[in-house]
Amino acid sequence: MDDIVRQAMAKWPNVPHCYGWLALDARGNWRMRDEAAQRQNAPGERIANTTLQSFIHRNYTHDDAGRWYFQNGPQRVYIDLEVAPYVARTDPTQGFVLHTGQALSSPDAAWLTLSGRLLLRAQDKLAALDDRDLAAITPDFQLDGAALGDEQLLEWLADQAPRPLEWQIGERRLAVERIPDTGLDARFGFVSRPREGS
């Protein structure tokens, strides 16, 4: 957290929190959601300013209730999460990089939703993989020891009793569990739409 933010928090400790105005979309974009966007349940305008993005990234954290927020000076701006608290992308040198620019260590757990969204857990971070990067890693998925094609992966997602899916990451294999798209927040302990009193 920036020192200037800590100083502002100490100087003005009772600033009301902000809800519904900022969102993190499924591709790792910050979205400003004005009153009209909130009324229409629209995603809002993408924040393109890199200086503002960096400021949000440095001051992005969560409270004990699993509500993620951006500490904007003395004010907590709670974040609506489209999928998960972090979004990861593949990187040729680092493996995975979070939307905040931090490297994500090698995943220790993985889940694939019924719609084909991959969730990764590495230590204490839960990230949804940017959907544009899924094709880059699916060749490393294996079913009964054989690589999967796109059609086989779709069949596995639709199967009522799917066989174990494994992901070959370097020298180790990681089981990939199939889960529903709904209820991710409850399952993984975060609040997707924090509101006052929640």
Question: Overview of this structure, please?
Answer:
- There is one protein chain.
- With 198 residues, the protein is of the alpha+beta class.
- The chain folds into 2 domains: 3-82, duf1285 like fold (Roll); 86-184, no CATH class.
- Helix content is 21%, strand content 36%.
- It is built from 6 helices and 16 strands.
- The chain has a 10-stranded mixed sheet with strand order 9-8-7-12-11-10-16-15-13-14.
- Strand 15 (165-169) and strand 16 (172-179) form a beta hairpin.
- The longest helix has 9 residues, at 3-11.
- The chain is elongated and about 55 Å long.
- The mean pLDDT is 91.
- It comes from Noviherbaspirillum pedocola.
- This is DUF2946 family protein.
- Pfam families: DUF2944.
Characterize this entry briefly:
With 198 residues, this protein is α+β, with helices and mostly antiparallel strands.
Shape: elongated
Report the end-to-end length measured between terminal Cα atoms. Answer: 24 Å
Class computed from helices, strands and strand pairing: alpha+beta
Number of domains: 2
Can you tell me the residue ranges where pLDDT is under 50 for at least 5 consecutive residues? Answer: none
| Total helical elements | 6
Computed CA radius of gyration, to the nearest angstrom: 18 Å
Strand order of the largest sheet: 9-8-7-12-11-10-16-15-13-14
As a percent range, the share of strand residues is 35-45%
Number of strands: 16
Largest sheet: 10 strands, mixed
Question: Which series of helices and strands comes N to C?
Answer: HEEHEHEEEEEEEEEHEEHEEH
**What average pLDDT do the residues reach?**
91
- Helical amount: 10-25%
